[in-house]
Design goal:
Belongs to the acetyltransferase family. RimJ subfamily. The chain is α+β, with helices and mostly antiparallel strands. It contains six helices and eight strands. The chain has a single domain, classed as 3-Layer(aba) Sandwich (Aminopeptidase). It is globular. The relative contact order is 0.16.
């Protein structure tokens, strides 16, 4: 899915306010603290609450493996002013509930409401269409997660409908809004 360019752990993307870099072992504590917050974990299908530190280590190892093999691109989010301090995670890769590439993300609550996730999503979308040559990118958000739906819409994603998806960490299914962005839509929005 992703080219050699992204398969080295020195790969990073810089935005106006963020560094997107490969997750590292030192990020585990921040992941446990930030992703483990109930408000964050409950909006995701995979992050348990409370979060298991050993599961966090396994997540980092798997993310690095998938990045190295080009199967996915999982990036730690950090402020440019503190590039070693993880504040969230964003990824594009396979997802059991959808065909093709899926965008997923979370951000620690101290960083909500600043437009940081919109900045990160726009950057990952560009990486996917520019570097990976992707044609269609999908995402989803719980219908109750208004902020996540707004991020996707702001970044050009179009709502495709609603369905129930498995949320293993929540112990059942949840209703999600489905979103999609095509290369043509992305290119047109950029004026290309």
């Amino acid at each position: 899915m992703f080219p050699d360019l992204t398969r080295d752990d020195v790969f990073r993307i810089e935005t106006r306010r963020l560094w997107l870099r490969w997750p590292q072992a030192r990020d585990a504590e921040a992941i446990v603290r930030l992703a483990g917050e109930r408000a964050v974990a409950e909006m995701t299908s995979q992050i348990p609450h409370p979060i298991d530190p050993l599961g966090t280590d396994a997540f980092i190892i798997e993310a690095r493996r998938a990045n190295a093999e080009g199967e996915a691109l999982t990036m730690a989010l950090a402020l440019r002013s503190a590039p070693s301090a993880l504040i969230g995670v964003i990824s594009i890769g396979p997802h059991p509930a959808v065909s093709g590439a899926h965008l997923g993300y979370w951000l620690g609550t101290p960083y909500w409401g600043m437009g940081l996730m919109s900045e990160a999503v726009a950057t990952m979308v560009e990486a996917y269409f520019s570097y990976a040559g992707g044609e269609v990118l999908r995402s989803s958000a719980m219908t109750s997660n208004v902020a996540s739906r707004r991020v996707l819409e702001k970044c050009g994603f179009v709502r495709q409908g609603c369905e129930r998806h498995a949320f293993p960490a929540r112990g059942g299914e949840r209703e999600v809004d489905l979103f999609q962005l095509t290369r043509n839509e992305w290119s047109s929005a950029r004026g290309g």
